């Protein structure tokens, strides 16, 4: 499955409660996307999220339904330090 990084910019600090976590999982499942992990900036206003998804449109639909930004979506490939050994 293709992988994508989503850069999100929030107007206020990000807070995710248990109800939001459940809603995120449900909508992502319905759109066929899987949230792998995220990095959160020190000021809690920007995230970089790694996803697996069939395409960029699926990610945009999930973000719209969740009412969260998807400012930049970039298709990525995985590399790790082992390729340089």
Automatic annotation (TrEMBL):
Pfam families noted in UniProt: SCO4226-like (PF14026)
InterPro entries, per the entry: SCO4226, SCO4226-like
Gene3D superfamilies: ORF SCO4226, nickel-binding ferredoxin-like monomer
Name under which the protein is recorded: DUF4242 domain-containing protein
């Amino acid at each position: 499955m293709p992988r994508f990084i989503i850069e999100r910019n929030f107007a206020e600090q990000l807070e995710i409660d248990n109800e939001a976590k459940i809603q995120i999982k449900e909508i992502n499942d319905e759109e066929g996307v899987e949230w792998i992990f995220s990095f959160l900036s020190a000021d809690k206003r920007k995230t970089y999220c790694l996803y697996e998804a069939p395409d960029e449109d699926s990610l945009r639909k999930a973000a719209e339904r969740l009412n969260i930004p998807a400012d930049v979506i970039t298709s990525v490939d995985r590399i790790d330090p082992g390729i340089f050994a």
